[in-house]
Automatic annotation (TrEMBL), chains A, B:
SUPFAM superfamilies reported in the protein's UniProt record: FAD-binding/transporter-associated domain-like, FAD-linked oxidases, C-terminal domain
Primary location: mitochondrion
Any GO BP: malate metabolic process
Gene3D superfamilies, per the entry: 3.30.465.10, 3.30.70.2190, 3.30.70.2740, Uridine Diphospho-n-acetylenolpyruvylglucosamine Reductase, domain 2, Vanillyl-alcohol Oxidase, Chain A, domain 4
Any one Gene Ontology molecular-function term assigned to this protein's record: (R)-2-hydroxyglutarate dehydrogenase activity
Name of the protein described by the UniProt record: D-2-hydroxyglutarate dehydrogenase, mitochondrial
Record has Plastid as a keyword: no
Catalytic reaction list: (R)-lactate + 2 Fe(III)-[cytochrome c] = 2 Fe(II)-[cytochrome c] + pyruvate + 2 H(+); (R)-malate + A = oxaloacetate + AH2
Domain (FAD-binding PCMH-type): residue spans on this chain: 124-303
E.C. code: 1.1.99.39
Source organism (scientific name): Glonium stellatum
Protein family per UniProt: Belongs to the FAD-binding oxidoreductase/transferase type 4 family.
Amino acid sequence: MASSSRLALPLRRIKCSPGTFQRNFRARPAAQVRWTGSTAATSEPHQQDRKGGIKDGPAPAKAIKFTSDSYPELKRDSKFAQITEEHVNFFKEVLGLQSAVIDGVSTDAADDIEPFNSDWMRKYRGHSKLVLKPGSTEEVSKILKYCNDNMLAVVPQGGNTSLVGGSVPVFDEIVISLQQMNNIRSFDEVSGIFVADAGVILEVADNFLAEKNHIFPLDLGAKGSCQIGGNVATNAGGLRLLRYGSLHGNVLGIEAVLPDGTIVDDLSKLRKNNTGYDVKQLFIGGEGTIGIITGISILCPQRSPAINVAYFGLESYEKCQEAFQEAKNQLSEILSAFELMDGRSQRLVNKATGKKMPLEGEHPFYCLIETSGSNSDHDSEKLQSFLEHVMETSVVSDGVLAQDQTQIQELWACREGIPECLGHWGGVYKYDLSLPISSMYDLVNDVRDRLTKVGLVGNDESYPVVDVVGYGHMGDANLHLNVPTRRYDKEVERQLEPFVYEWVKGKNGSISAEHGLGIAKKSFIRYSRSDTMVKLMKQIKNLYDPNGIMNPYKYI
Amino acid sequence: MASSSRLALPLRRIKCSPGTFQRNFRARPAAQVRWTGSTAATSEPHQQDRKGGIKDGPAPAKAIKFTSDSYPELKRDSKFAQITEEHVNFFKEVLGLQSAVIDGVSTDAADDIEPFNSDWMRKYRGHSKLVLKPGSTEEVSKILKYCNDNMLAVVPQGGNTSLVGGSVPVFDEIVISLQQMNNIRSFDEVSGIFVADAGVILEVADNFLAEKNHIFPLDLGAKGSCQIGGNVATNAGGLRLLRYGSLHGNVLGIEAVLPDGTIVDDLSKLRKNNTGYDVKQLFIGGEGTIGIITGISILCPQRSPAINVAYFGLESYEKCQEAFQEAKNQLSEILSAFELMDGRSQRLVNKATGKKMPLEGEHPFYCLIETSGSNSDHDSEKLQSFLEHVMETSVVSDGVLAQDQTQIQELWACREGIPECLGHWGGVYKYDLSLPISSMYDLVNDVRDRLTKVGLVGNDESYPVVDVVGYGHMGDANLHLNVPTRRYDKEVERQLEPFVYEWVKGKNGSISAEHGLGIAKKSFIRYSRSDTMVKLMKQIKNLYDPNGIMNPYKYI
C-alpha cells in the first residue's frame, strides 16, 4: 500500500493507509456522500415511546397526538385560571397586537398557533390558545407578573427543539416565545465575552462570532433553530463540551425574570466574581421552571483555524479506552472530539445506506477523533505521531485521516448518520445516558444478551429487534444506547424498562446526560437522583415559583 | 546583540535578546534569586484595613487583635446558645476524645485551640472554645444536626488560608475542622475524574494526580496548606483559571451536610447529568454559610509536559490589550497565563530588592506569558512566531524567553514577588477587583491622579503614599490595585474609599474577583450586587440555614 506524507506509518502495521482513504472517498462524486437509506425516518423521525425511551420511525402523517391523550394520567391542574378576554386585553395592551398569537379567544391575529403547540419531532402537542412574543425583558416581567397574579400557567419557548417535550404546552398554558428578543447586545474582542438576548438563534450567534474569529462554546445539530436562551435553560451539551466544558463554566451572567416579575439582573461580563451565591446556576438546566432567561453573557473562545479528523477501528472496548487515554495524553490541548461507535452500529449504517465505509473489513469498535488548534502543521504532526503510536502498540487496528474538508464531513457522517440509519427497519428505542466510562459499554452487551436470551433479536422479520447498538460521546462518557426494531413490541419494552434505568442507577449514572427531563423523563428522575436531591430540587422550585405556573407537568 | 535559536527575531527590533536574558540570570548564583527587600513584611505580612482594603506591613508581634475588637459594631447574636458541658459530652460521644479540642470547658485535650481561632495573616481572631474534627460525613451530619437543634453557631474550617477572614470564628462559634477527612476516594485515569474528602490538601491532591500524569485544575500560592473542600467552598480562582476555567465548570459533584444534618449526596462522577437543578453550584463559593462540603468530585486535565514563559515590555495599556488578543489568537489552546504588571510595580520591585530586572531600560507596562502544551517544540515555535509578530508590529517593545526551569521561576518571580516587595515601605492598601478588560487600568490612573492631586504621593518621607500600582491576571480581567504607603493615613483611606468601590460599581465590576466575601467584604457587597441579587441570596441562605448557625457574621 502507498505510504503518505501525512500519515507515514510503518507499512506492516497499516491495513488501510490514507491512500486507501482517498480511493474510497475522493473517487466518488460529492452527491453520493449523503445518506440515502432512511428517507422514511427523515420525514417522520420520532415517535414517543411512552415508557421514557424514544422510538424513531415512521409516524402517521395525520395530526400529532395530544400529549394529554398520550399521557392520560396527566390532568389539567384546576388551580390554574382559564384565559379570558380580559386577560387577552391586558396582554394586547402590554405587547401590542403584533406580539400575541391568539386562537379561539379572539380573531385579531392571523398567525397560526399550531407550530407553538407541537414539537419538531411531532411527539408532543398542547392545547394552548395564546402565544405571547415579548420584545423586551420589561415586557416579560409585566406579563409574567400578571400571569402569576392571575394563576395563568405559562411555557417559556425558545427554538422549540427540545428532545423531551420541554418547550410545548400540555394543556392550555400560555406560550411565551422569546423569538422577538433576538438582539446581540455586545461583544468584547479582547476578553471574548458575548452578551445577547435569549432569543438569538445559536447559528446566528456563532456566525457573528466567526466574523470576529471566535466561536460559541457550544454546537448542536439543531443550531439553525435553537436559541441560546433555550440552550442555557436546558444546559445543552453538544459537540464542543469535551474541549470547552459545560455551560455552568462558560456562562458568566444571566438576565432572567421570575414568576413574580422580578428581573434577576445578573448579566455579569466578568470572568471572576466571588461575591455571594451563584444563583444564576439554578437557571442553567432549570428548563424554564423557575423563571424565563431573557439574556445571557458567555465566554467565547478563539476559533481554531486547523481541524483534523481521524477514524479508526479497534478490537475491543478496552482498546477504545486505551486509545482515549492515549489521545488525551498526546493530543491533550488540541483534542476536540473523541466519539465511539460500535461495529454493529457501523454495520447497520452500511446496511441501511449501502455506502462503503472508510475502513475495509470489520472491527468490533470504531472511534472518531477530531483535533482543533491554532497551527495545522503542528496538529497534523501530533495526530500522526499519536496514530503511529496507537497502531504500533496495537491499540488501534486500522485507521484513516481526512485530507480535506469534504473528507472531514464524510468521516463525521459515519458518526452523525447513525441515528437516522437506525430508523431504517421501523423504529428505535433510544436512551441518552451518562455512565462511568469503564463500564459504559457493558450496558449495551447486557441489554443485547437480555433481549437475545428471550428470543427477541434476529436477522429475519419474525424477530422484532434488529440489533442492540451503542455509540456516543466517549470523551464525555455519554452513551447512546439504541435498539433498532422492525415493529413496536410490548415484550421488548418490558425487557428494556425498568432494566435499563435500574442498570444505570446501579452504576450511579444519569438517565439524561444532555437532553434534560422535560415531560419524557419526569417520572424517571429517581433513577438518577436520590430522594434527598429531589427534595432539595422541589424546595428550589417552591422558592421561586410558589404558584407553580412555570412550565407545569414537567421536570420534577 | 547575539541572535538565538529560540527567539530568532530580526536584530533591528530586539532591544534585549535571549542572550541578554542569560547574562542577567544565569551568571547569578541560585541563592540570590530570592527576594530580600521585605523581611519585615514577611514576618508580619498583613494588617487589617478596617475599611475593607488590606494593609500589608509590619504588625506588632504581640497577640492578634480580636475581630470583635476590630469590628466593635459586631455583637454576638444572643439567639445562639453558650456551649455547656452537656454539649461537649455529646460531641465526645460522637467523635471520641481525640477529635475535639476544648479550651476553657474541659481540660481533656492538650491540643492548642489558638491556631483554629486566628488566621495565617494574623488579622482575625475569634473566641472559640471548641474545635471538632469529624472523621466522616456521618459524623459531620450528627454534630451539625445537634448544633442546629441546640442553636450552636459553627464555622467550617479547611486549611484556614482565607484572605477575607472567612474561616475563623468571630465570637464563640464552634470550629468544625475538616482536617481529619483527608482520604482520596478514587481516581479514574481514563476520564480524569478525581473524588476525595474535602480535607485533602490541594498540594497532596496535585502530587497524587502528577503521578497519574494529571493536574488539579486549580493552583494557588497556598496550595501547601489549603484544602480542596475549602477551595470549592470559596470558589478559588488562582493561576490555572485562564486555561482550565472555573470550579463551577470543573466540579462534577459535591457531598455536603446541611445544618439540619441532611447529607447532600450529589457526588456525581459524571461529566454530564441533566436531571434537575444543579443545586451543588450553590455550595461552590457559598463560603460554608449553607452547609459543609465533605467531599468533591472534579474533572482533572492531563498534565502538560511543555512549559514556556516569556516576559516583555510594552509602551501602553492599549498595547497590552493588543498583545493579549494576539496571544489568544496565535497561542490559543496552549496559552495558560497572561499576567500584567505596570512599570511602576516593576520599578518598586527593583527598588525593594535591588535585583536586576529581566529587561534593560524601563517600560510603562510588562506582560508575562506562559504556555503549556503537549509538545515542547511546537509550543516554542508558536511562542517564537508570536513574539516575532508582536515585535515586528511594535505591539511589544522588548522581550525575553526563559530557557530553562530556573529562568521560568525567575520570570514568574517578577510577577509573584510584587505583593511582598510593595510592603517594603511600610504598608499596602490592596484591592482584588474584576473589571471590564478595556477600562481595567484606568482605575489605577484615576486613583493615582486623585491621591497626587491632594498631595499624598511623593518620593520623600513627608508623603504617605509611595506610588499607586496595578498588576494582576490580565487573562481573567482581574486587577490587583495596590497603594504602597510609608505609614497608615486616614486621609489616604478617605481618598480611597468609597471612591474605589464606587468606581468599580460604575463599571459593573466586582469588588472581590477571587478572594470571596468573608468578613472583610461583607459590608461592601452592594457595590457589586444589586438589591435584587442580595435579596435572592438571602432567600437561599434562609432556605438552607433558617437558624443562621452557619458561619455567622460574614458573607451577606
